[in-house]
């Protein structure tokens, strides 16, 4: 049976509306989940370990720890990096709330640094200046699915003795110099929210080559309890110890079965995302005032998002008008992101102000995310570009 027959992309509320992202669930995914539901073991069972092992080997990391969101993955990473009250963590502001939120959960202060205007990735040349004796970690965000400059980031982190945490929630399957995201930083955090590369409904993963950190994160996701279910059943013992404060961040077997099934399709989906990006790029050449973000050399982009920048000096319309015209045409454009440091929580608690990060601010005013998901067809891309041409009428 062709797998698209029952794909959930056929059950959109309005069949002509093109969202900016859309998940894909096929019959084999449903069968994998049903098998777990019939198995009698719904959580913290064999599917968790199978998914972790498959994921670690897919991204070429030694260990993978499954948790129940990308946000929990970031929180667990902060925990094992030793981030605590009074510490500082360097983060970009051009990111989703969770990147900075995880720093705040840990009682630490996010120190926002500016990005490179061409690709919206953290700019290594601003990091040194942001580091103080309180800094514990650097978080890089592989914005839109493009890996950051990890050679530069690793060099800075090791020079200052800091942990490098990759927020890789956009970049599953991406590579830098032939090396897979998931093996580029000390700790690499992924999300399986439906809008990401693959889904478990909600879910997340951290990969690392450090066995002690992996073990510590397994405790963190389970209330800080030291024995896992194997040890408990093997020794038939009631004994366990709470060693650190942990949380319930466990991912269910139901979700891990879906994750295992989805993971197999990543190569196929990535190839499609890349061909959609190529088609966009070739079409946008003829659209003055609209340019895709640049892609660094030696990078294999994962295209979680397809982001364009509007040249406001060249267009006779503003970003808001373009956004509204696109939405009216049934195209779910979006803006990723309102910079975190501009939100009231951060302004009030950390005294950030709009002038802090000029490149982030300038980019924020010009970006627009166009629809990008593997089940889009070439005609959908054409429809987006045609609508954009009309919306940008100069
Ligand atoms: C999605 C996302 C997260 C959070 O993931 P959840 O699974 O939704 O908790 C964190 N950082 C970035 C950059 C994301 O896009």
**Kindly state the mean pLDDT as a whole number?**
94
Tell me which ligands are bound. Answer: pyridoxal-5'-phosphate
Global structural class: alpha/beta
List the total number of helices.
14
Strand line-up across the major sheet: 1-9-8-5-4-2-3
Number of strands: 13
Distance between the termini: 47 Å
Q: What does the radius of gyration come to?
A: 21 Å
Sheet of most strands:
7 strands, mixed
- Low-pLDDT segments, ≥5 res: 1-12
Shape descriptor reads globular
Fraction of residues in helices?
25-40%
Question: How much β-strand is present in the residues?
Answer: 5-15%
One letter per element, helices H and strands E, the order comes to HHEHEHEHEHEEEEEHHHHEEEHHHEH
Structure description:
By secondary structure, the chain is α/β, with parallel strands linked by helices. The protein has 14 helices and 13 strands. The protein has a seven-stranded mixed β-sheet with strand order 1-9-8-5-4-2-3, sandwiched between helices. A three-stranded antiparallel β-sheet has the order 7-6-11, with no helix packed on it. It has a three-stranded antiparallel β-sheet with strand order 10-12-13, with helices on one face. The longest helix has 19 residues, at 266-284. It is globular and about 70 Å long. The protein starts with 26 loop residues before the first helix and ends with a helix. Residues 69-71, 95-96, 98-99, 141, 167, 169-170, 191, 193, 204 line the site of pyridoxal-5'-phosphate (PLP).
